[in-house]
Amino acid sequence: MSVTIKQIKKAYDAAPQLRALDNKQLKKVLMMLADELEKQQSFILKANRADVEKQDPDNPRIDRLRLDEKRIKGIAGSIRKVSRLPNPVGKVLEKRKLKNGLLLEKVSVPLGVVGAIYESRPNVTFDIAALCIRSGNACVLKGSSEAENSNRAAVKIIHQVLKENGLSPAVVTLLSSDRETVQELFTATQYIDVLIPRGSDGLIQFVRQNSQVPVIETGAGVCHVYVQKKADLKKAVDITVNAKVSRPSVCNAMDALLIDQAIAPAFLRKLKPELEQYKVEIFADPVSHRMLKGYPYLRKAKKEDYGREFLALKCAVKVVNNSDEAIEHIRKYSTKHSEAIVTEDKKQAEHFLHEVDAAAVYHNASTRFTDGEEFGLGAEIGISTQKLHARGPFALEKLVTEKWVIRGQGQVR
Amino acid sequence: MSVTIKQIKKAYDAAPQLRALDNKQLKKVLMMLADELEKQQSFILKANRADVEKQDPDNPRIDRLRLDEKRIKGIAGSIRKVSRLPNPVGKVLEKRKLKNGLLLEKVSVPLGVVGAIYESRPNVTFDIAALCIRSGNACVLKGSSEAENSNRAAVKIIHQVLKENGLSPAVVTLLSSDRETVQELFTATQYIDVLIPRGSDGLIQFVRQNSQVPVIETGAGVCHVYVQKKADLKKAVDITVNAKVSRPSVCNAMDALLIDQAIAPAFLRKLKPELEQYKVEIFADPVSHRMLKGYPYLRKAKKEDYGREFLALKCAVKVVNNSDEAIEHIRKYSTKHSEAIVTEDKKQAEHFLHEVDAAAVYHNASTRFTDGEEFGLGAEIGISTQKLHARGPFALEKLVTEKWVIRGQGQVR
């Protein structure tokens, strides 16, 4: 047994300790953790400085790696927020008495052990640990070597609080940041119930392709806004602009705009000056390209510009004949993340909401709302673009599994 | 693009046709299918005979492969049963109005495309197709080459009914039974939402280890019955005997019996003649071995006899000091399938139900109840021993995913 597997097994063995705590006790652990983090701010900032100083100052990841007083405050605030979220464990999801007298209950219970693989941000260590503790799960963490000192300091604080609560430090286990650790996580099906990659698309794909432990994939978002011919022009402009420019680097930002032929000239006339203000680069199909003549940041769309996640002030535009063409385009190019229709025609809206297969579908609202906090679920681990277990914002409420509890009086089959 | 991938893509492209049907229409398709199957009985039996005649008559799988009038009737009956199950699609799982006026709904929707890999039983073709059609999912099926003619005949009947209902035959696609097909299924993440292996443990492990498409694993069951010291002796004997002998070849049968020291002599005295009647081979720990002296089918338990799924009239027996020892033993050896405690002490029972991590936990009832039909969920695809998406009986209700539907009046973030 390798050192890593021994550590993982220790986390698995310690997991029942967390399951045994009640809601109040779990909340208390997190409140103490937030306090302790603020108290030991200089300790963790010093460790973080050592990480930052090791880096090439031109490393673009340096900003994600760096902690400061404000960020520590933010992390402590997040931990307190997680502690106040409703308890995801112990919900009775189904309750029935069978004909033979058996009392059947399906209840939510902790998953057991959560594995996480993440990149340079040291706040992820606290995020995952807090969500796991809150939901009664042990966790094994594999951060990046760049954040080694910061992560060790973070876990030292966490361990201190765990011990003060009579818990084994193994319930939050920091694994070696070596690359080999990842291979061990991938095959530890006996001890780990779910593996969560958090970071770049490359990391997520690598984990999905190689892990035997079930993975929750939080993938890329190629999001569309479809302006139907009965759209209110003002709403359509507001939503399009918001979906594209409010935060272009995130997965719920708009990547492609589809416009009904009938409304396209009037709509684009209104939209043009708004997008120009933000210097949004437009990749237009031939029809919209003609309509956008004179727009300073205009390109001709190539085939690969559809289905592209821009993560920048860029978007594709296409004029369609009707909603069926829009729906078919989305089916072909979307990553099933967030899709919106703008229209005053209720029937058309409902048809779109029903037919489009995505984690979140919107009528007359910006795709930017797809977010755990916005949905009232609290801090999210990511937006799941897969269909099993968690879809859309993957937050505390989904860090559980189900258990059938059957109470009888001696029944046999 | 290979022939197989083209077929899979065709199923993906056709899937929206099923999603567009309402509950009544989907039910009708299944009722017609059941009728057509009975009408075309001689056609499918002839195809099946061709498969059976190809086999070595000593092939133990020949019985699973063989269809007859009674089995056809059974399959048609199952299809009708599935058609009568409650609609798993369109359930509103959550509904909330956000402060900004957005109306948020989480609803159940079809998964999209279900992939299935299975072995010689040709009834699985009908089972999976019926469950998928009922839940609005397209499916791609990879059966075994042994059942090639039977599966082709089955799908011919299914396609006829689909066409009569104006649906593309591609919504139920039978893939080539070649081994290479499996590799293509494993990587078709773009088109397949979940892959379900159905058959031997070897097949399931192979799929889990190699598939990039998410898998629902229906694994082995190493199930325990724990007779606590406050157990009612009659209930304990009834439950133990039922859990072991009523159908030893299935995954919810008991594999190991744990007995509190204090009650062990009295309990084993009562149990012995019952198990002897069925010639149950007992692998006993030293303490119970002494108590079972004279029992004709007695062996000494080796370490590997714990954690063994016997699938036969065999079981391990171990005497424990208390419930903590029993719970720890279960944690170590169980596959988290079905675990039972027999006791009249409610507090002890609740402690066990809470602490033991398994898909189904029982107080004073036989582990044999873990079953989709018994739980009132209808025909099951298997018992899921994993923790994501589906746990325990994996039935129609879990062939869905969730979708967030957000209705606004022009909201932006």
Keywords:
homodimer; alpha/beta; Aldehyde Dehydrogenase, Chain A, domain 1; Aldehyde Dehydrogenase, Chain A, domain 2; 2 domains; four-stranded parallel beta sheet; 14 helices; 41% helix; globular
SSE topology sketch:
The structure is a homodimer of 413-residue chains.
Chain A: H1 3-19, H2 23-39, H3 41-54, H4 62-65, H5 69-84, E1 92-97, E2 103-110, E3 113-118, H6 123-134, E4 138-142, H7 148-164, E5 172-174, H8 179-187, E6 194-198, H9 201-210, E7 223-227, H10 233-245, E8 254-260, H11 264-277, E9 281-284, H12 286-291, E10 298-300, E11 314-320, H13 323-333, E12 338-342, H14 346-355, E13 360-365, E14 380-384, E15 392-395, E16 400-411
Offer a concise description of the structure.
With 413 residues, the first copy, chain A, is α/β, with parallel strands linked by helices. Helix content of chain A is 41%, strand content 22%. Chain A folds into two domains: 3-217 and 393-407, 3-Layer(aba) Sandwich (Aldehyde Dehydrogenase, Chain A, domain 1); 223-369, Aldehyde Dehydrogenase, Chain A, domain 2, CATH 3.40.309.10.
